[in-house]
Specification:
The complex is a heterotrimer of chains A (187), B (259) and C (422). Chain A is of the alpha+beta class and 187 residues long. Chain A is built from 4 helices and 9 strands. In chain A, the strands form 3 sheets. A 3-stranded antiparallel β-sheet of chain A has the order 1-9-8, with no helix packed on it. Chain B has a domain at 49-74 and 119-245: Cytochrome Bc1 Complex, Chain D, domain 2. Helices cover 41% and strands 6% of the residues of chain B. In chain B, the strands form 2 sheets. Chain B has a two-stranded antiparallel sheet with strand order 1-2. In chain B, strand 3 (176-177) and strand 4 (185-186) form a beta hairpin. By secondary structure, chain C is an all-alpha fold. Chain C has helices at residues 12-20, 23-32, 46-65, 75-84, 89-116, 125-147, 152-163, 171-180, 187-218, 237-262, 292-300, 304-319, 321-324, 338-357, 363-389, 399-404, 415-418, and strands at residues 35-37, 234-236. The two termini of chain C are 40 Å apart. The model of chain C is unreliable at 406-422 (pLDDT under 50). The chains are: A alpha+beta (187), B mainly alpha (259), C mainly alpha (422). The interface between A and B is medium-sized, with 23 and 20 residues.
Chain lengths: 187, 259, 422
C-alpha cells in the first residue's frame, strides 16, 4: 500500500519523516486514550448502579420454620434457602468425611457457631445457575437429602455441599448474621 | 461595501448578544427585583461544595423545610456526598419512619429508614399535601435550584425576601408578601426565623445564614455530581487542548510540502 | 481467480477479505486517495464534525436507553436515576443533551458554508436536497428526544408542536389524534416518541450515506467555487484532510466539553426540571434555541394555518434553492452583492431567533414580521433577480493557480465566461 502523501510530496520541500512519525505516534496514542476513556464510561454505565448496590438487607424470622423444612427468601434478586435441619441431619453433615466431597469443606465452616441447625445458602446451582429443588416438602431432595438441581442432576447434601456433579462447587453462602436466636439478617 | 459587511457582522453579533438574556426570559413580572448575586462556594469552574454549610443546610431542611417539602429524588445514602460517614448516614436515616413493604399478614408496615431508603415524604400524596397547606402544593425540593430562573440566588432571595407589604398593597387571604416572588404573593409563610435551629458548630443562626446553608444543601441535592463533573472537565479540556496542539503540529508538518 | 476482485493490499488477511469483499479497496478509494480540492478552509470541517456528532449521539443514546423508562409515571425519575445512580450516567446524559445543541450548531454552520460558497449549485443539487432531508430528520429526532425526559417543557413542547398539525382543515385534528394515540399528549405519545427517537437516527444514517455517496460522485465544492480541472488542483483525502479534520474535531470537542462539564444546563430551560403536569402550562413556552427562528416565523402571522405553512415553507424553500439562485458563479467570493446579502439573511435568521425567545408583544411582533419577510424575500426575489443583475468578479483559472500563484497580480479575467456549464 503506497503512501499517498509521498506521491504528492514536492521537491524542494523535504519533509522530516522521523519527526512526523513521532508526532503522529503521540497524536495517535492520545486519540486511542481518549477513545478508550469514552468507551469505558459507556461500558461502565452497564455495571450495577448505586441504587442496585445499595439494595437493603433482608431480615428473616426463623421461628415459623418447622424442623426439617426450609423457606426461600429473596436477597439482591437471588433466592436464599434457609433450612431448619434436624439433629440427625446435622450429625450426618458433620460426620461426612472430607474425602467424600467434590469441594471439600466442613459443615462447621458453613454454619454460624452455635446455630448448626440453621443452614443458609444462596439457592443457585454452581453449574449453570438453575434454582435447585428441595425446599418445599413435596420437592425431591436427591440422594443426599439436601437439594437436587433439575437442570442437569447435580445433588447437594444438607450442608449445601455438592455431592454429585456436574456442579463443581458447593452452594455459595450469603453474608448473614444472627440478630437473635430466631432472627437472621442477610446482607 | 467592506464597511457594510463589517456593519452587518457587527449587527449579527449584537443580535446574538441580545439573544443571550432573551433565551432565558427572566420572570420579569412588574417590579420584582433581580435576586442579588451571592458568593457561593459552588460558583465557577473550580467551585465545589462547602460541606460544612451543606451539612448545616441538611439540618435546616430536616428541622424546618421537611415539615412540608419532600426531597423525593434523594436517598439517605446520598448524604455521603456532603461528607457524612456511613455511620452518620445510618444514624440520620434511622430517625425517620418510612413504609417498608408488607408484613406477613399483608398489611403495610413501617420501620426505621435505612441508608437505601428514599428521604421520607411529609405527606403520603399530593391531595394530602394540598389539604394540609391551604390548597397549595409545597414543591418537591430535589431539583428546585435548577427549576427556577435565578437558581441559587433566587431561592436565597425568596428565603430572605419576606417583609410587610407596602402600604396599599392588596393581599389575598392566606398569602404572604415576598419581595422576590413573582407577583409578590407567596403561599408559603416565612419559613426561617432567627435562632430557629441550633447549629452544633456554633455558627450563628440568623435567617441569612440559615438560608445560605440550606441553599448550599439544595444546590448539592439538585446537582450532586457537580464537583466530580467540574474536576473531570478540567482534565478533559486540558487533554483536548494538548491534543489540539498535537494534531495541529502534525497537520502543519503534513501540509508543509503543499504550500 | 474467477469471481474474485483484484486487490493491491499486501497483508494476506486484508488481501483475502478484499478479494472477496472489496471494502478495503473501496475505503482506500473513497477516503484514502480520494481526490479532494486542495484549497478547503476550516469551514469544510463541519461535515466531518456533524458525522462525529451523530456517532456520539447514537452511542450515548443507546446507553441511555438501557436505563430510560418510556412511561409517564417513571420517565422523569428514570432520567434522574441516570443522573444520580448510574455509573457515569450524568456524563452520558449531559453529553447527549448538549450533543443535540452541538449537532445543530455544527449543522447550521455546515449549511451556511454550503450557501456562502454555492455548494448547492449544479451538479450538487441532489446532494444539497438530501442535506435538507437530513435537517428535517434531525429536527424531528431532536423534538421527540426533548419530550422523553417528561418535564414541563417536554410535555408542553410536545403539545404545542403536535397541535401545529391541527391547523390543516378537516384532516388536521385527525392527524393530531393519530400522533397522540389519544386525546392529549399521554402515555401512548411518550411511548411512540421513544420508539421513533430510537429509530430515526438510523434512518438519518441511511440518508447521510446517500449524502456522502452523492458527494463522492460530484466531488467536493471548494472556497473558490470553481471546478477541479487537473490533478494539481487536488490532494488525496488522506492524510491531508483526515489530519485537518482531526484538528477541527479537537477544537469542536473543547467547545463541547466546556458545555458538558461546566455549563450543562445553560441551553436548557429551568421548567424542564419540573415533572410534566398536564393541568398547568408554564408561563413561557419556549422551544430549544435551535427551533427559535422557525417558532418566530410561526408566530409572526396572525393566521394559524398560514403561520404553520410559512414555518414549513421556511425549510422546504431550501429544497428548491438550487433553482432559485440563478447565478452561475458558486462562491460568494466572486459575487460582490451576494456576499453582503447573505449576511443580511443570516442577520434575519438570528433576529428571528431573538424574536422567538421573546414574548410576541410590541416591538418583537414587528421585528419578527420584518425578518420573516426578508427571509422569504431573500430566497424568492433577491436570489432569482441577483443572478441576472450582479456582475461577478473574474474567476481564477484553476484552483492550483489561485493557491500557488501568490503575489502574481490580478487573477486572469474572463474566467467566469469560460467556466464550463455542467
Amino acid at each position: 500500500m503506497a503512501d499517498p502523501s509521498a506521491a504528492h510530496a514536492q521537491p524542494g520541500h523535504p519533509a522530516d519523516p522521523s519527526k512526523r512519525d513521532f508526532l503522529q505516534l503521540v497524536a495517535g496514542a492520545g486519540a486511542v486514550i481518549g477513545a478508550g476513556a469514552i468507551a469505558w464510561s459507556l461500558v461502565d454505565s452497564m455495571n450495577p448502579s448505586k441504587d442496585v448496590l445499595a439494595l437493603s438487607s433482608v431480615e428473616v424470622d426463623l421461628a415459623p420454620i418447622p424442623e426439617g423444612q426450609g423457606i426461600t427468601v429473596v436477597w439482591q434478586g437471588k433466592p436464599i434457602f434457609v433450612r431448619h435441619r434436624t439433629t440427625a441431619e446435622v450429625k450426618e453433615a458433620e460426620d461426612t468425611p472430607l474425602s467424600a466431597l467434590i469441594d471439600p469443606q466442613t459443615d462447621q465452616a458453613r454454619v454460624k457457631a452455635g446455630h448448626a441447625i440453621w443452614i443458609v445458602v444462596i439457592g443457585i446451582c454452581t453449574h449453570l445457575g438453575c434454582v435447585p429443588l428441595g425446599n418445599k416438602p413435596s420437592d425431591p431432595r436427591g440422594e443426599y437429602g439436601g437439594w437436587f438441581c433439575p437442570c442437569h442432576g447435580s445433588q447437594y447434601d444438607v450442608s449445601g455441599r455438592v455431592r454429585h456433579g456436574p456442579a463443581p462447587l458447593n452452594l455459595a453462602l450469603p453474608p448473614y448474621a444472627f440478630e437473635s436466636d430466631s432472627k437472621i439478617k442477610i446482607g | 461595501m467592506r464597511a457594510l459587511r463589517t456593519l452587518l457582522a457587527a449587527g449579527t453579533m449584537a443580535a446574538a448578544l441580545l439573544a443571550a438574556p432573551a433565551l432565558t426570559p427572566a420572570t420579569a413580572e412588574e417590579n420584582v427585583p433581580t435576586p442579588p448575586p451571592q458568593n457561593w462556594s459552588f460558583n465557577g469552574i473550580f467551585g465545589s461544595y462547602d460541606l460544612a454549610a451543606a451539612q448545616r443546610g441538611l439540618q435546616v431542611y430536616a428541622e424546618v423545610c421537611s415539615n412540608c417539602h419532600s426531597l423525593n429524588l434523594l436517598h439517605y445514602r446520598d448524604l455521603a456526598g456532603i461528607g457524612l460517614t456511613p455511620a452518620q448516614v445510618k444514624a440520620f436515616a434511622s430517625q425517620f419512619t418510612v413504609p417498608q413493604g408488607l408484613d406477613d399478614q399483608g398489611n403495610p408496615k413501617d420501620g426505621p429508614a435505612t441508608p437505601a431508603d428514599k428521604f421520607r415524604s411529609p405527606f403520603p400524596n399530593e391531595k394530602a399535601a394540598r389539604a394540609a397547606n391551604n390548597g397549595a402544593l409545597p414543591p418537591d425540593l430535589s431539583l428546585i435550584v435548577n427549576a427556577r430562573e435565578g437558581h441559587a440566588d433566587y431561592i436565597d432571595a425568596i428565603l430572605n425576601g419576606y417583609a410587610d407589604p407596602p402600604a396599599g398593597f392588596k393581599m389575598q387571604d392566606g398569602m404572604n408578601y415576598n419581595k422576590y416572588f413573582p407577583g409578590h404573593q407567596i403561599a408559603m409563610p416565612q419559613p426561617l426565623h432567627d435562632g430557629q435551629v441550633t447549629y452544633t458548630d456554633g455558627t450563628p443562626t440568623n435567617i441569612s445564614q440559615m438560608a445560605h446553608d440550606v441553599v448550599t444543601f439544595l444546590e448539592w441535592a439538585a446537582n450532586p455530581e457537580m464537583v466530580e463533573r467540574k474536576q473531570m472537565g478540567i482534565r478533559v479540556v486540558l487533554f483536548l487542548v494538548f491534543m489540539t496542539g498535537l494534531t495541529y503540529a502534525v497537520k502543519r508538518k503534513i501540509w508543509s510540502n503543499v504550500h | 481467480m474467477a469471481g474474485l476482485t483484484k486487490s493491491d493490499f499486501k497483508n494476506p488477511v486484508v488481501n483475502w477479505i478484499d478479494t472477496r469483499l472489496p471494502i478495503f479497496t473501496m475505503l482506500q478509494k473513497e477516503y484514502g486517495v480520494f481526490p479532494t480540492p486542495r484549497n478547503f478552509n476550516y469551514l469544510w470541517n463541519f461535515g466531518a464534525l456533524a458525522m462525529v456528532n451523530l456517532v456520539i449521539m447514537i452511542a450515548t443514546g443507546i446507553f441511555l436507553a438501557m436505563n430510560y423508562q418510556p412511561n409517564t409515571l417513571l420517565a422523569f425519575d428514570s432520567v434522574q436515576r441516570i443522573m444520580r445512580d448510574v455509573n457515569f450516567g450524568w456524563l452520558i446524559r449531559y453529553v447527549h443533551q448538549n450533543g443535540a445543541s452541538m449537532f445543530f450548531i455544527v449543522t447550521y454552520i455546515h449549511i451556511f458554508r454550503g450557501m456562502y460558497y454555492g455548494s448547492y449549485k449544479a451538479p450538487r443539487e441532489l446532494l444539497w436536497m438530501l442535506g435538507v432531508v437530513i435537517l428535517l430528520l434531525m429536527m424531528a429526532t431532536a423534538f421527540m428526544g426533548y419530550v422523553l425526559p417528561w418535564g414541563q417543557m417536554s410535555y408542553w413542547g410536545a403539545t404545542v408542536i403536535t397541535n401545529l398539525f391541527s391547523a390543516f382543515p378537516w384532516i388536521g385534528p385527525k392527524i393530531v389524534t393519530l400522533l397522540w394515540g389519544g386525546f392529549a399528549v399521554d402515555q401512548p405519545t411518550l411511548n411512540r416518541f421513544f420508539s421513533l427517537h430510537y429509530l430515526l437516527p438510523f434512518v438519518l444514517v441511511g440518508v447521510i450515506f446517500l449524502h456522502i455517496a452523492a458527494l463522492h460522485i460530484t466531488g467536493s465544492n471548494n472556497p473558490l467555487g470553481i471546478d477541479v480541472k487537473t490533478p494539481q488542483d487536488t490532494l488525496p483525502f488522506h492524510p491531508y484532510y483526515t489530519i485537518k479534520d482531526s484538528v477541527g474535531i479537537c477544537v469542536y470537542l473543547i467547545v463541547f466539553a466546556i458545555f458538558v462539564f461546566f455549563y450543562p444546563n445553560m441551553l436548557g430551560d429551568p421548567n424542564n426540571f419540573i415533572p410534566a403536569n398536564p393541568l398547568q402550562t408554564p408561563a413561557d413556552i419556549v422551544p430549544e434555541w435551535y427551533f427559535l427562528p422557525y417558532y418566530a416565523i410561526l408566530r409572526s402571522v396572525p393566521n394559524k394555518l398560514l403561520g404553520v405553512c410559512l414555518m414549513f415553507a421556511s425549510i422546504l424553500v431550501l429544497l428548491v434553492l438550487p433553482w432559485l439562485d440563478t447565478s452561475r458563479v458558486r462562491s460568494a467570493r466572486f459575487r460582490p452583492i451576494y456576499r453582503q446579502l447573505i449576511w443580511l439573511w443570516v442577520l434575519a435568521v438570528v433576529l428571528l431567533g431573538v424574536c422567538g425567545a421573546n414574548k410576541p408583544e410590541g416591538i418583537w411582533v414587528v421585528l419578527s414580521r420584518v425578518a420573516t419577510l426578508y427571509y422569504f424575500l431573500h430566497f424568492l426575489v433577491i436570489l432569482p433577480l441577483l443572478g441576472k443583475i450582479e456582475r461577478p468578479l473574474p474567476l481564477p483559472e484553476s484552483i492550483s493557480r489561485a493557491v500557488t500563484g501568490k503575489g502574481g497580480g490580478p487573477l486572469p479575467t474572463g474566467a467566469a465566461a469560460t467556466m464550463e456549464k455542467p
